[in-house]
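Morning, I've got a small favour to ask if you have a moment. It would help a lot if you went through both lines with me. I owe you a coffee for this, so here goes:
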Amino acid sequence: MQLQYNSPLILTFFLLSLAVFFLGQWTNGWTTMHLFCVYRSSLKDPLFYVRLFGHVLGHASWDHFLNNMLLLLVIGPPMEEKYGSVSLLEGIVFTALVSGVLQCALFPRTALLGASGIVFMLIMLASLSGFSGGIPVTMLLVAALYLGQQVYDVLFVHDNVANFMHIVGGICGTGFGYVYALRPKKRKPAAHKASGKPGLKFEKTSRRKSR
């Protein structure tokens, strides 16, 4: 049996995060601080724009990395299969951008790194499974239990966990799921029967499924 790279986007994200973590260990944290950790800095600094998106690949410790990657590898592949690699990549990039901008705007004296926001985005996407226009009960339960815990931690627990950005990731995931579900689907053209006229050759064409 051959190994199957069954979830290209999620596995690539995992491998990049792993490489970034070991690179940070090798450089004694220099690359993590300057490339994969977002914080308010000059807009003239070209590395600021790298950090604005790259912060989701950085992790502060091995435990931090494992906690995020285990959930990513469990929830990510089914979501990639459902939404497609390109669409899910758009959601990840959008979540990274929003969380990075909000971190710089609202918390100028702290830095943000880690894939927690992406994981929460995937969790909310998973809770929207079977969505067909109404409000899924699973989404309400996840929002009440998972995001409710984050709101409690923001208000009453003071630690180094960026709970606010977890909430931002969850909101981005919910919005992405609704936008994708309500997006008009392309209809496949009706098949035409061969007329049987001589001299005509009919070939089958492959068509990708609409997303």
